[in-house]
Amino acid sequence: MTVPENTPKARGATAHLRKKIGGTNTTDAGTALSRDRERDSETRQYGYGERERERERGRDRGRYDRDMDRERRGGSSRRSKSPRSRQRSGSKSPPPVDKAKPNFGASGLLAAATNTVKAADGSSTVLKYNEPPEARKPTLGWRLYVFKGKEQVELLHIHRQSAYLIGRDRLVADIVLEHPSCSKQHAAIQHRSVQERDEFGGVKAVIKPFIIDLESTNGTHVNGEQIPTSRFYELKAGDVIKFGLSVREYVLLHDDA
């Protein structure tokens, strides 16, 4: 059944429909206005809006894609080197020190300071020789009889201390050499405690004299033969010692010889 448009009922229905449509449009307009206000407030607060953020995300994605493509093609120049490659490119590192092995190297300034002897005039001398742990004062009365040709010129007692430094340097030498061919610190006589077997096969400690050449220029001779440098050479009663090119002979004897 069709309702005529000019009747009061038709006019009421039309007005109700218009009111309903007008209310919906008003609500949509209010929602849009609210969104615009929020967008304006967000733009004022952060400096950019949703569109700007979307463009920024797009630019970031583009930069990321370009970096990944560059790394896949040949590696980025900004990529840091690995520790192994940095070690190869830099200077060589010193080899690790094996702590299980003893270190006999010079200890530098500390060793020089402890081995330095100063004179009253301010001069100083660094000792070339240090006594070993087995150094002992002898129990026998060892002596050196000094001969020049057939004439005895001096008698030296070498049993009052464990070691005697021999050379031209009067500041440190216990036995002074005058000949110019002798070195300032030429040699040393050292009494040492060594292990020796007796006639029954037992082992006992015996104190014996040794001589060591301190890398002298013209060497040290025992019984006419030059001894090796920097090594202990055992001496026996009756041995004849000569230093450098000097003609003086030092004959070793003790009380019981």
UniProtKB/TrEMBL annotation:
Q: Which InterPro entries match?
A: Cell_Proc_Reg/RNA_Proc, FHA_dom, SMAD_FHA_dom_sf
Feature: compositional bias, Basic residues? 75-89
In terms of superkingdom, the source organism counts as: Eukaryota
Regions of biased composition (Basic and acidic residues) lie at: 34-74
Entry-linked Pfam families: FHA
* Cited Gene3D superfamilies: 2.60.200.20
Q: Which residues form the FHA domain?
A: 164-227
Q: Which PROSITE patterns match?
A: FHA_DOMAIN
Write out the ranges of the annotated region (Disordered).
Answer: 1-104
Protein name as it appears in the record? FHA domain-containing protein
Q: Which organism is it from?
A: Pleurotus ostreatus
